[in-house]
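task queued by scheduler; priority normal; single chain, no ligands, no partner chains; default sampling; output format set to structure tokens
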Amino acid sequence: MNRRMLWTLLGLAGVAGLIGLGLLITQPPASGKGQAAGAGAFDLGLAPPAGRRAVPATRFLDGDGARTSLAAFRGRVVLLNFWATWCGPCRAEMPSLDRLAGRLAGADFVVVPVSEDRGGLGDIRPYYAQLDLDHLPVYLDPQVRLARQLRVKGLPTTVFIDRDGNEIGRMLGWAEWDSPTWLKVIRGMIGAGASGKPRDRDDAAGDAAAG
């Protein structure tokens, strides 16, 4: 069996396994769905949770291979993104997630990209380098436990979590996360539980230049 045939068979096996888990690759939103103009988060394609839903304490791995959980981010608004290196729509949105993290991540907000790759850091590190992802941390869910617990049905899926650890909305499919519309919505989520108006790094740089 030559190498090309081997990789083809492995790829088909991986797709079959994901279908069994209910994880499918999603296509880009048609006609801007998920990115439409509007002040409300749910106008953008986010699905609200059915009642107050605390996120699970399921463990996953950080970039050093240490176990962590979503409880580590309590007190901050979390954008939890499930993705994989082989997912085309994920690749389309990862640079915008990186730019979003560069602008807004800090004491009040964090982007948590959780890879569903089975190959571990050996798959993820080269992928980050290829896309110049400088602001995104690395997290892994190689046994798909967290995705199962959160009933993720496709990749990419993004789940928003409030400061108290409750899911406040999710979206199946990719988005341009640093677009003006999404920035406005995410700043609103951050400001809902913080004192004062949230400001990103570009705003602060502009103030410093003006002063």
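post-processing summary
- Strands lie at 24-25, 53-54, 60-62, 67-68, 77-83, 109-115, 139-140, 154-155, 157-161, 166-172.
- The domain at 22-210 is CATH 3.40.30.10 (Glutaredoxin).
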